[in-house]
Amino acid sequence: MLPTVLTIEKVVFGMKKLVVGLLSLMCLAPTVKASAPKVIYGVDNRQEVAEYPDARFREMSLSVAGKVRKFKLLPSRIGQDFLDFPRVSLANAQNVCAAERFSEQFTLPHCTGFLIAPDLIMTAGHCVTNELDCQTSSWVFDFLPSNEYLEKKNVYECKRIVQQELSSSMFKMRDYAIVQLDRPVTPERKPLKLRLEGRAHVGTPVVVIGHPTGLPLKIADNAKIRPFNWTEILTPIRTIARKSSYFIADLDTFAGNSGSPVFNQKTGEIEGILVQGATDYVTSKEGQCLIPSYRPQTTWMTMEKSFRVTQIKNLKKILETYNK
Asked: Which of 7, 62, 196, 236 is the most buried (most CB within 10 A)?
């Protein structure tokens, strides 16, 4: 990550280093693929919430929800306090090979969000684009591998969009939304702490919690903030200008992780909202099903982008208003 105040000498020195790296990378060019949703770097670091060793993040996962289309939430024969949902496994939903991790687990959410006040959810801007999107979706907490049904007390409606931006230009990007729920959440779910000023440095270890490919909630770590990837150094001026809006990190994330909170592993503060990444799945050697796309855990290959929460306008005022 570049410092807030850049001298010309530092920029020039930094770009020289990047050019050298790019020349080295060009030797690998045939293996590079275009970026799209999300991906795995190195080994697959996704873990079940219940098995995650750090109690801080197990507790914070209670405040992370999945966005679900209302038509997928059905009356339950168990009773009026419960809801059923289509039991479609990852293998059937995405044609993922049966031998792959989590292939037998059910999929449901198409985006992730997290609490910032008792009745406010923050997510990616492309996850909630308009009021119709708000009205036709619900937010589900505690969607875990053990779920055979959903408890209605864990399902919330989107009351309204408080603030939303989704734009991209030469010098900046915006991709966030804040929505108000139909009621405050239950007491065990605490609003998560956001970074409100400054920024994390390159090399900062980060953790993400969310619903990769609509799976039950997962925690992924063993990642850190990286400086530049190979696509960014091809457009250095644009990249330098836009870096105030986002950072990249080698997080193991997929479509469905959009809107996930990206935490500073040391402080527990949320640094960003997961918004973009590289291709999720590729065809297996046999050509009959899909397997996760794996990339080297290097700076040049890191494509996962997180929008900086410090770039959200009026954030402090919103938090003060809704956390009273």
From this structure: 62
How far apart are alpha carbons 158 and 143 in whole angstroms? Answer: 18
pLDDT of residue 160: 97
Residues 120-160 have pLDDT tens digits of: 999 999 999 999 999 999 999 999 999 999 999 999 999 99
Answer whether 193's CB lies under 8 Å from 268's CB. Answer: yes
Identity of the residue numbered 205: P
CA dist., res. 316 & res. 277, Å (int): 28
- Classify residue 256 as left (phi > 0), alpha (psi -120 to 50) or beta: left
What residue ranges define each of the domains in the chain, with the CATH number in brackets?
A: 34-44+194-310 (2.40.10.10), 54-192+313-322 (2.40.10.10)
Tell me what pLDDT residue 38 has: 60
Side chain identity at residue 92, one-letter code? N
| Residue 303 confidence (pLDDT) above 60 | yes
Quick one: pLDDT band at residue 234, thresholds 50, 70, 90? confident
**Burial class of residue 118, CB neighbours in 10 A (0-12, 13-18, 19+):** middle
Calpha distance 181→304 (Å, rounded): 28
| Residue 50, number of CB atoms within 10 A of its CB | 12
Tell me which residue of 50, 99, 26, 71 sits closest to 292, measured CA to CA.
99
How far is 47 from 42, CA to CA, in rounded Å?
A: 15
Q: For the whole model, what pTM was predicted?
A: 0.86
Pairing, β 294-295 against β 74-75? unpaired
81 C-beta neighbours (distance < 10 Å), count: 10
What's the CA dihedral at 260, 279, 204, 194 to 10 degrees?
A: -20
